[in-house]
């Protein structure tokens, strides 16, 4: 059974450090808000959650981490640590979109199978995505992940949405929503937690029968800022 798999989950994609271990049918987890200080806490938190579960890295079956969208630096830190542990200990590595994990987090609490994610970056800029949960428990929507620099685009982005959607992210509590054909459930979920990476991993392992050892994983940076340009980036982290 996939729930028997021992999984170490790591998230540093937004403004928190979060780690979790599934072992012996239990999930052990640690969470700490650490804006721009991920590197200070994440290694210690991994060690502490392994001690909490009373397990050594050698007994981990899979490592799973988030790959963005989110904080440019935070994503790099989480992926670098996950890849290093994976290669040193020869543990298969799984990766998930931050928005997949947030959607699973919402699903566990509210059981709404469609999510809209809007993470505010500045006064007008935000990260955006829409996900739907299929009959196999997998979240589909990576193609919708985008960066926008005009918050006034939200009505246009949701104009074709109908039915009930779970609203995730930091924008919705300030956003006045009016649309008769659509109900928006404000979840107040703004930050991913690593234990929900484990639920994503279990669904993935249940549906994928051949898992290969990943040496490099793809990270998602929807925005890279320079003094003059804004780029969309898909970047490999290579050691």
UniProtKB/TrEMBL annotation:
One of its GO terms (cellular component) is cytosol. It comes from the Bacteria. InterPro entries: ATPase_NBD (IPR043129), Gcp-like_dom (IPR000905), T6A_TsaB (IPR022496). The keyword Secreted does not apply. GO terms for biological process: tRNA threonylcarbamoyladenosine modification. The chain crosses the membrane at residues 215-238. This is tRNA threonylcarbamoyladenosine biosynthesis protein TsaB. It comes from Buchnera aphidicola (Cinara tujafilina).
């Amino acid at each position: 059974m996939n729930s028997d798999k021992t999984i170490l989950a790591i998230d540093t994609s937004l403004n928190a450090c979060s780690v979790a271990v599934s072992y012996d049918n239990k999930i052990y987890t640690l969470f700490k808000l650490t804006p721009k200080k991920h590197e200070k806490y994440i290694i210690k938190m991994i060690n502490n959650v392994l001690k909490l579960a009373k397990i050594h890295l050698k007994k981990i079956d899979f490592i799973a981490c988030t790959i963005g969208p989110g904080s440019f630096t935070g994503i790099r830190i989480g992926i670098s640590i996950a890849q290093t542990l994976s290669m040193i200990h020869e543990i298969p590595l799984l990766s998930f979109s931050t928005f997949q994990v947030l959607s699973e987090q919402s699903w566990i609490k509210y059981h709404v199978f469609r999510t809209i994610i809007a993470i505010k970056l500045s006064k007008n800029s935000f990260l955006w995505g829409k996900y739907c949960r299929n009959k196999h428990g997998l979240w589909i929507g990576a193609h919708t992940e985008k960066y926008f620099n005009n918050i006034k685009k939200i009505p246009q982005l949701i104009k074709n949405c109908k039915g009930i959607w779970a609203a995730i992210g930091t924008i919705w509590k300030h956003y006045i929503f009016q649309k008769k054909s659509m109900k928006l459930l404000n979840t107040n979920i703004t930050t991913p937690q690593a234990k929900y990476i484990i639920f994503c991993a279990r669904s993935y392992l249940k549906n994928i029968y051949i898992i290969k050892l990943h040496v490099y994983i793809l990270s998602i940076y929807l925005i890279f800022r320079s003094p003059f340009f804004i780029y969309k980036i898909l970047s490999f982290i290579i050691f």
